[in-house]
Amino acid sequence: MEINEENQKKCVKVVGEIKKILELHNFEVVTDNSAKPYRERKNSISGEMLWFYSKASKNWPQSTDAKNRTGYCLFLRADEVFEFQLRCGISKIGYEKFDAVKFQEVMDNLNEICDNQGWKIDKSVTNSLKEGPGNSKEGMHVIIASEYFDSTSFDHFVEQLDIWNKNNIESFNKYKDLVKTKTATEIIMAEKLNEIKELLLNNHNIILHGAPGTGKTYLAKEIAKTLVFGNCKEKLSDEEQKQFNEQCGFIQFHQSYDYTDFVEGLRPKNDRDGKIGFEPKDGIFKRFCINALKNLVDSNKNEEEFEKESAWSEKCNAFLEEYYSDGDEDDKILETESRKSKFYISGYDDDSILIAIPKNEKKASLKLNRRDLLNALKKGDQWDSVEKMKEAIGRKIHHEAYYLFAIANKISSMGKSTNTSNTKPQKGTYIFIIDEINRGEMSKIFGELFFSIDPGYRVSYDELKKTKENSECLTTVQTQYANLQETNNDFDRELGISDDEKDNHGHFFVPENVYIIGTMNDIDRSVESMDFAMRRRFAFKEVTAEQSQAMFDNGTKWNNGKGEEIDVSSQLDNIKQRMNNLNNAILNKDFNLNSSYQIGGAYFLKFANYCKTDGDKVVDGDQTDAFNSLWTNHLQCILREYLRGMDNVDGDDGLLKKLEKAYNLDPEYKYNEKGEKEPKT
C-alpha cells in the first residue's frame, strides 16, 4: 500500500474505529501519529501508530514519546494486517529486542491466546546482545500479527487482550519494575546465573566448559557471589569480602598438583630444638570442608548453646594473646597441677595450640587441640581433677589432659565472658571453585574422595545427629594418612568417634552445604584424561563464545594492563562485529573446526592495551594499529595452534590469512551465524 493521500484518509478512519474499540474495553489511547507518517518503508503506511494502555493497570508513567514507557503499541501495515507490540522498559530511543520468551509468566498465556485465535507471534525471541534502533539499551519487545485486519477481528483481539492483561498484569509489572533498575544485559546475566545456580543446587557439582576466553572462571565467581549473598554484588565491602573468602574456595589444577595439596599430606616442620621433621597437614579442600562443617553444626545449635560457646571462645582468644611467649617472659610461664611441669604457649592458630615444655627431655613441644579445650570449657567452670578433664574431652588416659587442665583453669579463673560479639550463623552455602579441573590427574588428586564428592553421599546435619545419637552407620571414608592421626579430627567428633578409638580416626566426608564448580576448555587436550567416573559426578554446562560477549556490557571501561580504565565505547560496535565475524568464519567447513574453537570475549578485552587514547577515552577514529596488535599478539597464535597439521595454513591464500580477513571485516569474507560465506554487497 503506497503512502498517499487516499490511503492516509483510509488509515485515519480505521484508526478512529480502533480507538473506539479500545475505549470500550477499558484501554486508553495515550497518543497517536495519525497526522504524520511513522516510517516511510514499503511495509508501512502513514498514520498507523497508536500507543495505548489498560486504565486498570496504569502501566504508562508518562504520555509523551516511547521513552520510559510500559504498554502496548499498534501498527497498521501495508499488507493490511495489524501489528501489535507489547513494550516494556527504559531506553534512550526505542526498545531493545529482548528475548521475551524468557519472561515465561507473561508469554505462556499470550502464546495460548494467539494459537487459539489463529494469530501468530512474529517476533518474540530476538537478539538481546545487539542494540535496537536508536541505541536502545533495555526492555521487552513482543510483536503479534493477525492474518487479516478489520474492525471486527480487532474487536475480538482486544477482548482477548483485556483477558490476558487482567491475568498477567502482576507478572508484567514485576518485569517492568525489573527493567527500571537493570539493563537488558544485566537481566540476561541474572537469568544465566539463576539457570546455572539452580543446576548447581540440584546437582552439587557442575563443570562450566566451552571455548577459551569465554569467562568461565569469572562466571563461576559470580555464581558463588549469588549463592553467598543472594544476588550478584558488583562490589563487596571489607566485611563482605571476608565472608566471601570464608565461603568461597579457589584452586587451579595443574599436572603436578596432587592429593597432599588437595586433601592432606606430610609437610616439613622445624622443631624448636632445630630438628627437621614431618607432620600431617590438611590440604586446601579438607580445610574448606572443615569450615563448612563447622557452619553446618553451629547453624543447627540453639541460641543459648551457641552463645555459651562463643563466650568461651572469646575468652580463649584473649588468654592466648596474653600468654603467647617466646620463652623469655617468666610471667607467662604456666604449670601443670599434679606434675608441676612448666610450659608456655609458643604458637596457636584456629585449630591448635602449640606449647613448649623446656625441661621435658622426651617431648619438648606438644600440639593441643583447640576444639578439645573449648569442649571442656563449655562443660563447666571448674574441674576438680585431671580425670574430670579427661572425661570432659572424651579421653580416659592422655598426657595432653594435664596441660589442657592447666590452661582451662587459667581461663576459667579470668572470669567467664557474658558478652559476645558473635551471633549464631545462618546455614551458609560454601562453593569450591576448581579452575582448569581437567588439567590435573584426577585419581592422583582426589584419591578416595571420588566417593565423597558424589552428590549422593553429601552428609546432612540430620544424618550426623542420628549417627551420634544412635550409633547408626554413616558411609564415609578414611583418608590415606588416617593411621598417623593420634586424636579424633573434626569429622570424627561429629560422627561420635571418641579420641580413644585410635584405629577409627581420620574420617572424611563432604557436608551437604558444600558445592563444587569446575571449569575447563573443551579444546584442551587434557580433557581426554578426565575419566567417566569423574564425569558422572558432575553436571556440565556450556558457556559459548556468543554468551561471553555479555562481558563487554558490564562496563565500557576496560583495564589497559597498566591499572588504568579506558572507555572503549566508541569502538565497541567495531569490536563486536570483528569478534562475531571471526567466530562465524571458524564454523565454516574450510577450517574443519567447530564452536569449541571460537574465540571468547576475554581475548578482545586486550584491545584496551593497544588503542590510541585521549585521556581515559579511546580516540574516535582509525584504530587499525590497535586491532592489528590484538590480532598479532593474542588471536593469531591460538588460531595457528587450532590449524596445526592442516594443509595450506600460511601464505596469502592460507587458512590463517582468511581468518585474519574475516577478523578485519573484509567484504569478501563476511560469514553468517551458520558459518556460510555471505555474498559480497
List keywords for this structure.
single chain; 681 residues; alpha+beta; 6-stranded antiparallel β-sheet; 5-stranded parallel β-sheet; 23 strands
Report Rg.
Answer: 34 Å
Uncertain runs are: 32-48, 57-71, 75-83, 88-106, 122-152, 171-185
Quick check: average pLDDT? 76
Secondary-structure-derived class = alpha+beta
Shape: elongated
Q: Percent helix among the residues? A: 25-40%
**Main sheet properties:** 6 strands, antiparallel
Q: How are the strands ordered across the major sheet?
A: 1-2-3-4-6-5
Structure description:
- This protein is of the alpha+beta class and 681 residues long.
- Helix content is 38%, strand content 16%.
- It is built from 22 helices and 23 strands.
- It starts with a helix and ends in an 18-residue tail after the last helix.
- Strand 12 and strand 13 (352-356) form a beta hairpin.
- The model is unreliable at 32-48, 57-71, 75-83, 88-106, 122-152 and 171-185 (pLDDT under 50).
